[in-house]
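S., here's the first fold you wanted:
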Amino acid sequence: MSLNKKRRASTEMLVIAAVLTALVVVLQLLCSFIKTGIFSITLALIPIVIGASKCGAKIGAWLGLVFGLVVLLTGDAAPFLAVNVAGTILTVLLKGTLSGLCAGLVYKLIEKHNKYIAVIVAAIACPVINTGVFALGCFAFFMDTIASWAGGGDAFTYLFVGMIGVNFFIEIATNIVLSPAVIRLLNLKKQ
């Protein structure tokens, strides 16, 4: 690959990453008004999957980190910040960063066989990692608080049914449908 082609590819990746960064911020800000329970629906995972698929795991991790920062700054994490600041920051930043990183790694692993399937698996991995790390953070830092929120009910059931359930299914469904569709549209442009 010539130096000009490398520079052009590098510039293209930088532009895609910048546009997707802005999209993550805008989507998360808009979605902060769409709540199920105390949490917002997260559509920002879609540009994270797109970035991880088109630009790699490092860009996916960056987009996930930006997503985590926006969650912290918009007040979506406020109920947890009131309980444990360090645990909240660690959980929120880690869940976003790891979801983007893992989406990129999964995509890279599978793309050699089938790029379309790779996007679908990355679109599944991203919300699974995001929600899984959130659940682990809840177990590590917030189970006493979640038990009090459950009002005498089972904290485990409240966490998985009341807090995570609906959001997770909406996030995974939108990711499975929209991420591959957007990637296909972006790939049409190149043909």
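And the second, which I think is the more interesting of the pair:
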Amino acid sequence: MPTQTSRTHEVDLSVQPMVHVARLDTAIAFYELLGGRLIYGSRDGDWALIGFAGGALSLLARPGGPDNPEPVELQFVTRGKLEPIAARVEAGGAVIAQPVTDEAFGRMLQLRTPDGLLIKLLELDRDLID
């Protein structure tokens, strides 16, 4: 019989991977062929958000290389504030790679998973990215 787990922390996080691309315009066109639609950003900028039925994909016009060996980043976007999340994960023993910082798009918190993967939690300010 399946057991029911109790959720001790209700968090409004959505997964939003970021793919590093060489050309934003051609990447947007490709993901539109898959059924995505441009939500934010532009074809000639350096960042865009593509919406799909069940989520979103960020595109960043900075291809992988020696300074950026990972072509995909794992991000989470919250509708709430980052400080309660940071306090909770730190109290639980998680490694904070970078505390909450102001960014051009809002604010960001960076964590390391137990396996060492860097993940980014974003608090977007729609006034900054529209």
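Why I say that: Confidence is low (pLDDT under 50) at residues 1-6. The beta strands are 13-15, 18-20, 37-41, 47-52, 55-60, 72-78, 95-103, 106-112, 118-124.

Talk tomorrow,
H.
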